[in-house]
Amino acid sequence: MKYIVAVIQPDKLDEVMTNLEEKQIHLVTVTPVMGRGRQKGISEVYRSHKEAGSLLKKIKLEIAVNDEFVKPAIEAIVGGARTGHVGDGKVFVLDLPECIRISTGEKGCSAIG
Q1: Which of 16, 84, 86, 95 has the most CB atoms around its CB within 10 Å?
Q2: 92-103 pLDDT, tens per residue?
Q3: What are the backbone angles phi and psi of residue 57, rounded to the nearest 5°?
Q4: Structurally, what CATH architecture does the domain formed by 2-112 represent?
Q5: How far apart, in whole angstroms, are the C-alpha atoms of residue 88 and residue 108?
Q6: How far apart are the C-alpha atoms of 39 and 63, rounded to whole Å?
């Protein structure tokens, strides 16, 4: 089991979600976040609005998957989020030692879905 955390541009969320659905990955947590990377939050014009300051608006996706869905999930995220420019985001893949479904008490791979 793996826990995938991705930080992407807000305008790429719909495309990423569509790609994940096509790969049969439905269980996703989405959170609006702010952050900075290599661009160091330098003011930029984004969708005709000037984003100022040291933090830029991003979207964080969190996805728990069984091992056979790791590669498809990464492909879906990268394929939907990539523009080729600095600031496209990052994908982090972490080991997930345990998962428990609260409603049934299931544990491990079956608890993910």
Answers
A1: 16
A2: 999 999 999 999
A3: -70, 135
A4: 2-Layer Sandwich (3.30)
A5: 32
A6: 26
